[in-house]
TrEMBL record:
GO terms for molecular function: bent DNA binding; core promoter sequence-specific DNA binding; RNA polymerase II cis-regulatory region sequence-specific DNA binding; RNA polymerase III type 3 promoter sequence-specific DNA binding. Its main location: nucleus. Belongs to the SNAPC3/SRD2 family. It comes from Branchiostoma lanceolatum. Part of the SNAPc complex composed of 5 subunits: SNAPC1, SNAPC2, SNAPC3, SNAPC4 and SNAPC5. SNAPC3 interacts with SNAPC1. This is snRNA-activating protein complex subunit 3. Pfam families: SNAPC3 (PF12251). The gene is SNAPC3.
Amino acid sequence: MEVASSSETFSPQVHVQGFVDEAVKTLDVSDLYSKRDILKSVTYAAAMGVSIETVDELKSVCSMETLKCPLEDVHRDAAEVPTGTELVTLGLRKRYLDSKPNINKNCKFTVLSWNQEHAYQDVKPPPEREVKPQSAVLQVAVFHPSKKNRQKHKGKRMRLAQEYRVLGYQKLTDLRDAITCIADHTIAGEYSERPCNVPDIRAKDIYKSAYFFIENVFYNDLRYEDNRDLSKNVREWKQNKHEGKGSYTTQNMEDVKFNDLHIRLGYPYLYCHQGDCEHMIIFKDLRMFHADDCRDEGLYPLMVDRYRFRRQMCRVCATFTAKWVTYDDQLAEESPCFFCDICFKALHYKDQTKLADFEAYPYVDMGIFNIAIV
C-alpha cells in the first residue's frame, strides 16, 4: 500500500495493526526474510529440473564477484590521473575538475535511499536486535517548518527535510527523537556583551515539549516532568469556536505505537515542537517487513532521504562557517550579517571591549545535518 506523491489523492483511513492482521491471514509472511535464500534455491531448482546443490554451485560460479578484475577492488580518486596514461577522457576529466573546484556546490539533495536500504541487508544483527517477524514498515516524510510569513512565500512548494522508515511496534517517541531540526539546536539569548560566556545549552535541552496531530488526535510528548501540553490552546480554541462539536482528543506520545494509529497515506499531518515550529509529515507507504529491509531493529527509525543544506559562510573571510549573526550592526554593511568566531571577535572587540552598537546571537548552521551516512 503506497502513495507515490503527496500531490496525489490520499488513501482511505486504515488501522495499521488491522492491516498487519489482514496481511498475516492473506500472505505467508512468517519468518520470510530468514528463509529467502532457501526459497529462491528451491524455486530455481524446480524450474530447471536440477538439485538444490547444483543451483548453489551455479550461484557461486556465476556470481558477479567472478567477473571482477583484481584491481577493481582498489578505490581510486577520480581526480587523480596516473602518470603515463593514454586515456584522453580521464585527462579531460582531470582538467575539468581542476577548473571547477566547487563543482558540487549546487548539489542540495543527498540520495541516501540505495545506501541506507542495502548497507545492512546482508549483516545479521545479534538475536536481541533482530526485527520482530510479521512487522509493519511505515515510510514517513518530514518537511521543513512552514514559513511564518505565508503571503510572502505563497505558492512555494514544501521542501522535504528527512524521510524515515519506522517499524509498526515502535513508539511515536522513537520518531520524535529521530527528527532533526535546527530549532532544537539554537542557543537562546543575546550575547554581544559577553561573547565568551555562551552556554552550551541547546533549545532541545530546555524546551522538550512536542506533539503529533494525526486524525484529530494530539499525541503529546509528556515524558519529562517539566513538559507542557502544547495542544491545550488549540483544543480550547476548537472548543470555543465550534461549541464543543467534534472536539479534539489527546494521548501521551510515549504510550502509543504506530500499530495503534489510524492513518491515511498521502494525507498531511502535523509535528510541532519548540512551541510553534511546525512540520508537515506524510505517511507515504505502509507494508510488511520483507527480506530487503534492514534487519537491525536498533537502526530504526531508519533515515532513507535527507535534504542537503548549503553552509552559511562568514561575510568577512568567506572561508569558515558562520558562528555569529548580528543585527543593526554599525560595523557591517547588512543586517543580519554572519561572522565566523575569529572574524566576529577581531572586528567587534578590543581587549574584550565592545567597539560599536549591535546585537549578536550565536548562529547554528544547518550544514551540521550534512554529515554523511553510510
